[in-house]
Amino acid sequence: MSVTKGHGVRSRRALIGVTGSVLGLIALGTGISYGAEGDALRAVSVDSAAELTAALADAEPGDVITLASGTYDGTFFATRSGTDDAPITLTGPRTAVLSNTERGCDPNVPEGRDVKYCGLGLHLNNVSGWHLTGFSVRDAAKGIVLDGSSNNVLDGVEVSDVEDEGIHFRTSSSDNILRNSSVHDTGTKQPGFGEGVYLGSAVSNWPKFGEDGGDSPDRSDRNQVIDNEIGPNVTAELIDIKEGTVDGVISGNTFDGDGITGDHFSDSWIDAKGNDYILEENIGTFTGDGEVVDGYQTHQQVPGAGCGNTWRANESDLGGASGFAINVTNQSKCGTNPNVVSSDNTVTGADKGLTNISTG
Ligand SMILES: [Ca+2]
Ligand SMILES: [Ca+2]
């Protein structure tokens, strides 16, 4: 592992207070700029699993950890945080591949909960201020999992060939952004739990991942899933929006439903069970190779949930599926917070048409 301090032989600590513009010039063209009060840049190059493990354990605000092309097999987790001004960046090319073939466990588990963190390709464990960019994760039980981790950015990563879900925002992981990324070929062991992107936790798992010691929802709120390619060969929903989560954005994504298995009710690109999400300008396709019935579904798993979601300007090609582009199954239980499907959504190839509710 080579560690390059931001400024010659002076320690990174000595650089604190150097103006952001000066640091920006020193900052190796990463495009990351720090405020005048921000911490200094430290460039960390890694090219082995041991070096990656060390870099994660030693991470400090402002670090840019760069993966060389190659395979990194191990149990990788982050327990240190960046800041808004000085995020911690983990970056590499798509040919830098993280895996966890031994299904090792992050030992940092919460007290009093029956929770294990095993087999994760990369675990963000109660951290903020991470930027994950470019690299790949495959051959793990789950791909990238965030627990208690908010204000992180996943940009341009690829997750595939995992046994269960690809990317999971869990245990009140909020205000994260997943963008420009690719998730495909998930659920290789448990098809019914092979979602591409998973937001929150099912009510049955709130004792493990919910607030207030498990008595309240998993509030993984306000996460944004933008401009990603999800599918094909995602065996469950491409995005599963769980009950108890609110105010997320699902925008500009491309969904390929081929390979959805129908296991564990997975028969749509998205199952929207949270509240007050915006779903807009997504392009969904299905060619008939799988068990897709509807493009989008809502369901109410707990009272009041699955309501207040808005669909705008989505293009849906269902390839001859038997259902709707947008099937709002629980509108009658939404009271004063109905779901809204605007008339600028389009559909082809769905036997029942655009939606079961009147468009507004
Ligand atoms: Ca599911
Ligand atoms: Ca379903």
Please outline the helices and strands:
Layout: E1 2-5, H1 20-26, E2 42-46, H2 49-57, E3 63-67, E4 70-73, E5 77-78, E6 88-91, E7 96-99, E8 120-125, E9 130-133, E10 136-140, E11 142-147, E12 153-155, E13 158-162, E14 167-170, E15 177-179, E16 182-184, E17 197-199, H3 206-209, E18 224-226, E19 229-230, E20 239-241, E21 249-251, E22 254-256, E23 268-272, E24 278-280, E25 283-285, E26 294-298, E27 310-312, E28 315-321, E29 324-328, E30 340-341, E31 346-350, E32 353-355
Parallel strand pairs: 2-3, 3-6, 4-7, 5-8, 6-9, 7-10, 8-11, 9-12, 10-13, 11-14, 12-15, 13-16, 14-17, 15-18, 16-19, 17-20, 18-21, 19-22, 20-23, 21-24, 22-25, 23-26, 24-27, 25-28, 26-29, 27-30, 28-31, 29-32
Antiparallel strand pairs: 1-2
The structure holds calcium ion (2 copies).
